[in-house]
Structure formats: C-alpha cells, structure tokens
Amino acid sequence: MSSAFLPQQRQIEITGKDAQEFLNNLITTDVENLPENEVRAGALLTPQGKILFDFLVSREADGFILETDNSQLDALIRRLTMYKLRAAVEIKPHAQEGVSIFWDGDKPEGAKLDSRFAKAGIALYRAAGASASGPTELYDALRISAGIVHSGSDYALQDAFPHDVLMDVNDGVSFRKGCFVGQEVVSRMKHRGTARRRVVIVEADAHLPAGGTDLTANGKTIGTLGSVSGNNGVAIVRVDRVADALATETPILAGETPVKLTLPAWSGLSFPAAENTASAEE
C-alpha cells in the first residue's frame, strides 16, 4: 500500500443536534445524504457564488468533520461560528494535526474513502493524524494525474466558482437540496451552461515550468498552470479558448514548453465546438 502524510491539513469537528441542518443550509455539499465512511468535496461560498473556503466533509457518529488546509482553519472556524447563531452546534479543531492518506491497498481501519479519487477509479482513503509517513509529493503526483486541484497551489480563494474546479461534477455541489450561501449563482451557471473555466490535465515531453506560468495560444493567455509533477500538471483554463486553439491547430504553450491539455475523463466534460465559443474577454 502507498501512503503519504499531509502535515498542512487539519480537521474541524462540528457536533450537536443541529449539526446536519446547520451545514446543509450553509455549504455546497448535500450532507443530509452523505454516506458514512465517505469524504466529499465541499465549499462555503460568497453570496456572489465564489469559493470563500474549500474543504472535504465527512460524517461522524455525533456530527461531521471538515478537512481543510491549515491556512484556512482559524478563519473558517470564525466564519462558521458567525453563522451558528442559536443553533445547537459545537465547532472546534480536531485534536490530531495532519492527515494521512492511503491508496493501492485495502482500506485501513478508521479511514474514509475520498469520493473525488473514486470517480477517477482510484481507491484513496483519508484518516486524521500521522499514521502514514510518505512524502506529500507522492500525493501531489497522484492527484495531478487524476485532475484534482487544491486551493492555494492551483487556484485562489474568492477567485473561482465551484464549476471552475469541477465541484459540479464531483458531488461537491448539490443542485437538489435547496438553498445555501451562493446557491442562486451556481444554480444559474448549471442550468444556463455558462461555466467557461475548467480544470485540465497538462502533459509535456519535457519538464513543465513552475506553477503560476501562463498557458498561451497564439500569444493570448488561456489559463494558468497550477501544481506540477515533472512532465505533468494541472491548470484551470478558458475552455472556449482551448477549443479555438485545437480547432485551428494552434500550439498551446506553458511558458515556452509545448503542452497537451485534456479534460479529466471522469468529469464527462468535453471542449465546446469551436464555432460556439465566445471571444469576449472576462
């Protein structure tokens, strides 16, 4: 079994008799129908529908667990507490620091399946604490190959919609459960099909440049390179501009390096037909 320890990850415990209703009315994920022993993507949005905080959510016997980057921990707890009002909910950091992940083997005791990776055909499990010791680079290489992105390294908080990072196709957003913060905007994007930015897997015949490098076609920026592992990386791109480049056989470059862009197969998405793409700037 392969494993890695993610020291930058932390967990938040949300318990109390109102915990389920509290979260279901606030975050993008449908926690009411969240299976046991499964971890799903989720976010707390701005009223304008952009990702204010992102995390993974799972069910516990007496409530729920949110896993997030340590840099978001204190601010996320403060924001959740602000929304709590008189709800019978307790919000506190988990006692254990860091998160261990495991793949290529049987499910470890107490670990939970990460549904994002499961959609990509990878059985990856997560557990609080330092029960694994492998380097984070192993995990990064795996998630890059699957087209799974993280805030900070791949996109900036308050600058991306859930659709941009594939939450609309990885169970990170529920379009059936009713209202949550920012729900009107993301629902409108879903029903009108107006999402223009998507995650792509980036491949090259040589080592890719560092994350943050612009992806260009004919000198025009079409996206930004995120996490990189050798010749592979992930990026968030304007799919209409990629479609135009593919239709005209225009080379796509990361800096000076020619690259190939593909949408993750598990997403079920495809680039739009070139004749339907928009040329307007954001």
Structural key phrases:
single chain, 282 residues, alpha+beta, Gyrase A, domain 2, Elongation Factor Tu (Ef-tu), domain 3, 2 domains, nine-stranded mixed sheet, seven-stranded antiparallel sheet, 32% strand, disordered C terminus
Topology:
Elements: E1 2-6, E2 9-15, H1 19-24, E3 38-45, E4 51-60, E5 63-69, H2 70-84, E6 90-93, E7 99-103, E8 112-114, H3 115-119, E9 124-128, H4 136-146, H5 183-192, E10 197-203, E11 214-217, E12 220-229, E13 232-238, H6 239-247, E14 252-254, E15 257-258, E16 260-262
Parallel strand pairs: 3-8
Antiparallel strand pairs: 1-7, 2-5, 2-6, 3-4, 4-5, 7-9, 8-9, 10-13, 10-16, 11-12, 11-14, 12-13, 14-15
Brief synopsis:
With 282 residues, the protein is an alpha+beta fold.
**Domain module count:** 2
Mean pLDDT: 94
CATH architecture of the largest domain: 2-Layer Sandwich
Structural class: alpha+beta
Shape category: globular
Low-confidence stretches: 275-282
How far apart, in Å, are the first and last alpha carbons?
A: 45 Å
Spell out the helices and strands N to C: EEHEEEHEEEHEHHEEEEHEEE
Describe the protein's architecture and organization.
The chain has 282 residues and is an alpha+beta fold. The chain folds into 2 domains: 188 residues, Probable tRNA modification gtpase trme, domain 1 (Gyrase A, domain 2), CATH 3.30.1360.120; 81 residues, Aminomethyltransferase beta-barrel domains (Elongation Factor Tu (Ef-tu), domain 3, Beta Barrel). It is built from 6 helices and 16 strands. A 9-stranded mixed beta sheet has the order 1-7-9-8-3-4-5-2-6, sandwiched between helices. Strand 4 and strand 5 form a beta hairpin. It starts with a strand and ends in a 20-residue tail after the last strand. The C terminus is likely disordered.
